[in-house]
Amino acid sequence: MDEELTEGYDEPCAQCGAVCWALSDGLQFFCKNCHNVIERTQAVVDVSTFILNNKISSISSGSRKKTGREGGREWMICEGFQIVLKHQAEALVGLGVCPQFKTDVLWDFWKRYLQNTRQAYTRAPVSSSTNPVDLTSESEADFLFLSEQSDQSEPISASGYVSSTGHSSDGKSSVCSGSLDAECYFRPKNRKSLHLMNMPRTLALCHLALLWLREAITLADLLRLVSKRLVPYITVYEEFPEEMKFFGRDAMIFRVETIPSYRKVHREALQMAEVLQLPAFPSVTSDCLLHPALLSLRYLMDANLPDELHLLVRKVIEKTAMEKDFFLTFNPSVRKSTLLCYDLQAAALIIVTMKLLFRLDDHVEWKLSRKANEKGNGQGKKKMTKQDSSMFSLRTWYMIVNPALERARKREELFEARRQWKPKKLIIPAMKHRTVVLKRRRVVEQLQSSFRTLSGSVPEQQQPSSTSNFQFLWGQEEDADGPSLHHKRLSYVLEKRGKDKRLVNQKYWHTDLRRCRERDCGDHFSELEPSLPRMYVWLLGLFSFILGVSEAQVHADVVKVERRLLLSKAVPKEGTSKRRRKRRRTSCMM
Predict the structure, then answer these.
(1) For residue 182, what is the enclosing H or E element?
(2) d(Cα 373, Cα 378) in Å, to the nearest integer?
(3) pTM (two decimals)
């Protein structure tokens, strides 16, 4: 039977020299003398036809010559990252970002990175070997394709981080990677000193470019788009051209199975800004969507809070001087300049304002809720029976938002459980394992096809992800998460005293506002959380879900706002009396 199936193939075995071929279950030729498996396979036109009828349609002919890169061209890791940035930029432009984001800003940042790290655009490019490999003019033309204007760009000299051979240490024909310089990326010394690119840094570079254009996409929005697969990141290496052979160590560089955290991307953005040596960013003016006044309005709408709260948030912004241009604008050239987390800052301003209004100590907010119910229904003559009362009640708001929050969390958990992490493009760890990996993939595909044919099932298609920046929908629509409370009034939390308006709540609590050294001391939220009021912790959880960050990060930004609000004016310096310090700390006037 084997002689009939292998008829016409009389090449001697490369290992033992015998001509006695047989066919395995995976339709691969192997030597019956030494059991050596070769790359020649028996081609079948239709997999399902073969499984059901056990009938061979055709047999492939000809023999391939084994080469190290299977006919692919030489390429470098930085070229792969350029393809990643290209697809990420195209996805963001397709979502509504200004076209200049790809053609001008991100492209200029990438060229500046290559030049400052001496990978390109320099007369003395760095190299990991004594014999650097210079790319030819044809390779240079393939390398410059991120921008449509790349043909008018200056020529590039991209000899950098090149391994001397690109082959495995045993000297055999199996190649350890498809790229030329993957080996350099696994040296810890090079990673730090040469500022090598990695996948999280591609998102950091996109984040810096978005900030430069003052786009409305914050870092939390960018990571949410990545999670929804609207911006390529997880399996972006599948977009590599066919001639760029991708295997071995390349997979360890470009293959990612998790989405980086907010804190990691923000830290990488700071490092990239330092490497790029960027000038001062364009000013964040009052009409910019990254301004805390406008950004806080967006999160107030998403959290179903009343519009009148925005006026009080703006007063907190004025008292903390957080609307100043020098505070909001990122200037990497200044030594102590920090890259603000604009979305976290806006959420922290809302939480601080709600603490000023309702205290959020698990007692006062519920008393004020009862007061709101009485005022909204005629000074307590009848109990509240409708949710469309004119006064904003924190209790009513909590009863509406909390179930919607729990449903949204369950939807997200279900979405993550159904997420397909398996790539479509097969990743080969090493050329010597190529035969085994291909056989396993064919067996799996044959079994899946057979099961679908016998069961008559159709592969489930994933619904397209929403591009909205809002997590919730409030209103009277059919698919709304609950009724809208944006029109509610907050007049009962303010009282007139002469010409000024004072808060009904005259006390404010806060955690320790002293700064600690980050190197010696870490995050204290896990220690503080059991002793904090439950309503405050729940509010942190609400905004942590909206932003996709941890509760500890939201609390840390709340503390930053409180330092600017209290330590600057309300809390006196050391040396004042304890009684006066307590009185000034707990008295707040809007």
Answers:
(1) none
(2) 9
(3) 0.76
326 neighbors 338 (Cβ within 8 angstroms)? no
**Structure-block tokens of residue 279:** 């000038």
Concatenate the DSSP letters of all residues of 56-118 into one string.
------S-PPP-SSTTPPP--HHHHHHHHHHHHHHHHHHTT--THIIIIIIHHHHHHHHHHTT
Identity (one letter) of the amino acid at 288?
Answer: C
Instruction: For helices 394-418 and 364-376, give the axis angle rounded to 10 degrees.
Output: 110
Terminal alpha carbon distance of the chain: 92
Report pLDDT digits (tens) over 407-428. Answer: 999 999 988 887 777 777 777 6
- In the chain, the amino acid numbered 414 is L
The token duo for 37 is 């498996």
Map out the domains of the chain with their CATH numbers. 2-64 (2.20.25), 77-276 (no CATH), 292-405+489-586 (no CATH)
Dihedral sign, CA of 223, 227, 232, 234?
positive
Rounded CA-CA distance 24/166 in Å is 33
For 477-525, the pLDDT digits (tens) are 888 999 999 999 988 888 877 777 788 888 999 998 888 776 556 678 8
Helix (H, G, I), strand (E, B) or coil at 501: strand
Give the per-residue pLDDT at 40: 66
Strands 28-31 and 494-497: unpaired
DSSP 565: I
- Token code pair at residue 102: 């790809």
Judge contact between 43 and 58, C-beta under 8 A: yes
pLDDT at 261 over 80: yes
Residue 28 pairs with which residues in a beta bridge? 41
CB within 8 Å of 246: residues ≥ 6 apart: 178, 237, 240, 254, 425, 427
Which tokens hold the place of 341?
A: 């987390």
